[in-house]
Amino acid sequence: MFIQNVSLILTALKQSLYPPACILCGAAGDLGLDLCIPCRSELPLLGTVCSRCSNPLTENTPILCGTCQQDPPLQKSTLCPYRYDQPIDYLIQQLKFHHKLYLAPLFGELMVQFLKTRLNTMPECIIPVPLYPKRLRDRGFNQALEIARPIARAFNIPIDYQSVKRVRDTPPQLGLLQVDRKINLHNAFLVKKNIQVKHVAIVDDVFTTGTTVGELAKVLYQSGVERVEVWVCARTLLK
Length: 239
Ligand SMILES: [Zn+2]
Ligand SMILES: [Zn+2]
Hints:
Blueprint lengths: L1 H16 L19 H5 L24 H5 L6 E3 L2 E2 L4 H10 L5 H14 L8 E4 L4 H7 L3 H13 L8 E3 L11 H8 L3 E3 L7 E9 L3 H12 L4 E9 L4
Parallel strand pairs: 1-7, 2-7, 3-6, 6-7
Antiparallel strand pairs: 4-5
Helix pairs in contact: 5-7
One zinc ion binds next to helix 2.
């Protein structure tokens, strides 16, 4: 609570000292975000997608994609606003690999505005995908947790970043084949203490093949959670 209050005060202070400016072109930001209206309108929205995995659907298809009809993922739904495409991919890489932590609240706010139009029932808690401890030390922050903070605040849902631990280090996923990802991430997560809630939303920055969130969902179900959904900023498209 204390940290949340401090972060609210800091956000208010920052906004009064530095009015929002677009991180892509420098023009005045809109709706308190560091993004202008024209740049925001050009962000690569996913459009109509599969409710289970957020894979784009062509017109006149049912609500589930072919993959989910044959072999549905563990999560009950995936909510994701953007394709992992320019400039979202660039911004996420800046956040993760170039220490641009200030981009996380922007992604969080964009997620809030997207989720407001999609959510029916609220999960009881948000679990950001944990980083392996060494990776967390190297990066200095967990981008999934930082993106989750504004979402948790907007919907008044607690964040649980202590019950699940990443017990296997895994190299960055981009560039690995799907089969390699599965081997790589097998048993990557461990539930440290019993999770008391039944409905959880996993938050992450990018959804690539879904292996990471699938592994996390697996241990959550094993520990008694009954409904897992996934909220991510961007998704790579299936080839
Ligand atoms: Zn702009
Ligand atoms: Zn699907």
